Amino acid sequence: YKSIHSLHQNSQTEFIFLPKNEEQRNQYRKSIRFIDRLKLFITMRIQLLYFMSLLFMMTICYDLPGAKTNLYIHVKKNTIEIGEYKGKHLCSKKFKSYKIDHIDKEEIKRYLLGKEEEIVLYYIHCWLGNISFYNKSSISALQKLEGIDKTISIKWEGKGLNYHKNWINSKNEGRKIGELFEYLVHSPHKNNVLLCHSMGHEVFTGLYESLKPDEQYFKIIFMASADLPKDILGNELKELPAMTQDLYIYEHNKDRFLQFATIVHKQKRLGLPDTMDSEVYQLISNLTIINVTCLNGRNWINPSNHIYFKDHSGVREDMNDRLHSFTCNKSKSRY
């Protein structure tokens, strides 16, 4: 055996040895790769089990208040369905289904938006967020946001419990209704607010491809627990700040799901703080980044620190403050 390199950790030197024989070295490397993949697999399954247990707890604990106007666009394999969540328990009532390649944009716009001047919240859920009880608890929590006249949920289908497959699929789900989404948010008599959560941001990148870079579609965009590359506003979504009056990114130091996603992608996620943030972000005048790690407020039991946008009263209060500033020309600050 021979020493190939040493690492300095915690004032101790660790020597790593490989066999001299090439065949043995290859076998050693394969073993290490297998162990790394096994660790990642086990970590992913533990996260999923934990997330599902949280969903179960929410079905027991969450109190659903009376419904406001809550509409939805359900993106399926070859069709989309539009309808409304009605009543105290937010039961879905289908209006109509359309084939993806035969969408009647005008009819959908009339049903979803009407002609009144309103503040409309578009909500794009996380991976597994289409599960009925989680979806209902999210919509219920969003009703606590003040000043919102109507919520339109974009419900997309996942690909089982495989994170990587869902990640690849999510952007394609957004692309299916990209032109319809642009048609809806382009309505001049509506004040649009967008809220994306977790992998829902990647769904939005599919929608984003149909948006025009010179149009300001939104009054506010909220990005909560964003499962996107840290530098995406300087690359793929570089035109996004121009599409909104105000852009808010919520971060948490110990967002465990995004820590897991960072391992999978080998790239830090947008919803995790970084002491060396990109200079591009500092030049975006309408961007505010809010670290919610120590934010005061009541929080449901949620060790993952990933769904604070709906479970943390302090975060909702902060969002309400942002919504109140629709017509205020406030200077942006980073804190």
Describe the structure.
- This protein is 36% helix and 24% strand.
- The protein is an alpha/beta fold and 335 residues long.
- A nine-stranded mixed beta sheet has the order 5-4-3-7-6-8-9-10-11, sandwiched between helices. A two-stranded antiparallel ribbon has the order 1-2.
- Helix 6 links the parallel strand 8 and strand 9.
- The termini are far apart.
- The N terminus and C terminus are likely disordered.
Number of helices: 10
Quaternary class = single chain
The gyration radius over C-alpha positions equals: 22 Å
Global outline: globular
Q: Please mark out the parts with pLDDT under 50 across 5 or more consecutive residues, or reply none.
A: 1-15, 58-67, 327-335
Which strand-content bin applies to the residues?
15-25%
Keywords, separated by commas or semicolons:
335 residues, alpha/beta, nine-stranded mixed beta sheet, two-stranded antiparallel sheet, 10 helices, 36% helix, disordered N terminus, disordered C terminus
Helix-strand layout with pairing:
Blueprint: E1 2-9, E2 12-18, H1 22-61, E3 70-75, E4 79-86, E5 91-99, H2 105-113, E6 118-124, H3 132-142, E7 150-156, H4 163-176, H5 178-185, E8 190-197, H6 200-208, E9 218-224, E10 244-251, H7 256-265, H8 279-282, E11 287-291, H9 308-311, H10 313-324
Parallel strand pairs: 3-7, 6-7, 6-8, 8-9, 9-10, 10-11
Antiparallel strand pairs: 1-2, 3-4, 4-5
Helix pairs in contact: 1-7, 4-6
